[in-house]
Amino acid sequence: MTNPISAPERSNWLKKLLIISLLIALSVVLERFLGYNDRLLSISFAYLPVALAAMLYGPVPGAIVCAAADFLGALLFPSGPLDLRFTLIAALKGFIYGFFLSKPGFGRGRAISAQALVTVICHLVLNTLLISTIIGKGFFALLPLRVLKNLLFFPVEVFTLIKMSQYRSTFERLSK
């Protein structure tokens, strides 16, 4: 009985799995060690490996990378109790990046749209709602500080996504 997956396909699959694993690890390091995290705000560049995975492989791998990075980071380096609702929100974030960034030749419009949706839906609405239930403060009491942080960081996030897209062909060549 022969294996239905040929050796080159198996090698390609293994390389993709290795790259995704490295991107998960990089996201954890960027979030937990090189980022700022407290109960209300989180500032880091952990979205870049997630966006790269989403750009290279699509929405589902982007969701897996973001969810796995969130879960592993919370499990290995906790800053509070493990809450799988944050992991689901992270998966949505990775999916949104993949939906907008996975098509070749994306430009400023897609980068702005992806980051705007992630910022509004995931960061401002869902995360703020979840944080407000956890710490017992009202949603609208937390919102102004979170809006300010996201307004200040939004241009940086969009700029880095656009810069990353300029090296897409290099990333694709290295990941094949």
- Average pLDDT confidence is 88
Strand content: under 5%
**Pairing-aware structural class of the strands and helices?**
mainly alpha
- Residue stretches low in confidence (pLDDT < 50, at least 5 long) are none
Number of domains: 1
CATH architecture tag = Orthogonal Bundle
Question: In what order do the strands lie side by side in the largest sheet?
Answer: 1-2
- Categorize the overall geometry: globular
CATH class: Mainly Alpha
Q: Tell me the series of helices and strands, N- to C-terminal.
A: HEEHHHHHH
How much helical structure, as a percent, in the residues? over 70%
Distance between the termini: 29 Å
Using only CA atoms, what is the Rg? 17 Å
Note the total helix count.
7
Tell me the CATH topology: Arp2/3 complex 21 kDa subunit ARPC3
Could you give the count of β-strands? 2
Q: Give the biggest sheet.
A: 2 strands, antiparallel
Describe the protein.
This protein has 176 residues and is an all-alpha fold. It has a single domain, classed as Arp2/3 complex 21 kDa subunit ARPC3 (Orthogonal Bundle), CATH 1.10.1760.20. The protein is built from seven helices and two strands; from the N terminus they run αββαααααα. It has a two-stranded antiparallel sheet with strand order 1-2. α2 runs antiparallel to α3, α2 crosses α4 and α2 packs across α6. The protein is globular and about 55 Å long. The model has no long low-confidence stretch (mean pLDDT 88).
Task: Break the fold down into its secondary structure elements and pairings.
Elements: H1 7-32, E1 36-37, E2 42-43, H2 47-57, H3 59-76, H4 84-101, H5 108-135, H6 139-166, H7 168-175
Antiparallel strand pairs: 1-2
